[in-house]
Amino acid sequence: MKTAVVTDSTSYIPKHIRENLDIYMIPLNVIINGEPYKEEIDISAPDFYEEVRNGSELPTTSQPPIGEFEELYSQLAKEYDAIISIHLSSGISGTYQGAVAAAEMAENVKIYTYDSEISCMPQGFYVLEAAWMAQQGNGPEEILPRLDELKAAMKAYFMVDDLSHLQRGGRLSSAQAIIGGLLNIKPVLHFENKVIVPFEKIRTRKKALKRIQEMLGEDVDKGMRLKATIIHANRVQEAAEWKSELEALYPTVEFSISYFGPVIGTHLGEGAMGLGWTVK
């Protein structure tokens, strides 16, 4: 069986890796000053943060039209027997529901939609695993159970510099944002039941990042073989320094660096940092 792997742009998998692994990507949109941009195609993450810093209006985001899913699935049906379509959490975007709706209308191919219940490179972990397995000749019956294994071990925590972005986008309540701002809290956030919620309230950025790395250490101490990704919102140097620190602390963990792109960056704001991990 020949299986295609589809994801959306919020997995933030570099283009050369997508091409090497035959991963197909549907972009979400970020709207800046009334102008729509397909992320990962029309605008890069560094350019996005530069635009926001210099712009007067805060950007907004939108999910892909169902027609884009339909068109891609139709094209892939000519070459593949099955499609696994992996998307960001259905609790923060309608993208997954769009994929489901398009899959129900598809003909001549079996489509398996998968809700990652997360986003960014932790979502990308599912995509990369599925694509690698598909290249080895595995079909959905082998790939989907493996994705569930990753999900059972998946953890991701992040902190933001400014809670107003999450509050404005409806991802955090007004009360939580106001209280956090008044107390200069840098809350550690995570996904729970597919939505973003506070995990712990911490007073400083340094302490928030230290708390996140301690939680990784707890899993390392359990003897788990892990791969982890550092995710940053236009903080390249800080991410590199944190990676070096983490590699020294946890030499058995395989680390990489990724980023919060335009769509997710719209809701988190510049300066956000995160760490996600799962089993190798």
UniProtKB/TrEMBL annotation:
InterPro entries given in the database record: DegV (IPR003797), DegV_C (IPR043168), DegV_domain_contain (IPR050270)
Coiled coil: none
Domain of life: Bacteria
Keywords: Lipid-binding
Membrane-spanning ranges: none
Protein name as it appears in the record: DegV family protein
SUPFAM superfamilies: DAK1/DegV-like
A Pfam family assignment: DegV
Record carries keyword rRNA-binding: no
GO MF entries: lipid binding
Organism placement in taxonomy: Bacteria, Bacillati, Bacillota, Bacilli, Bacillales
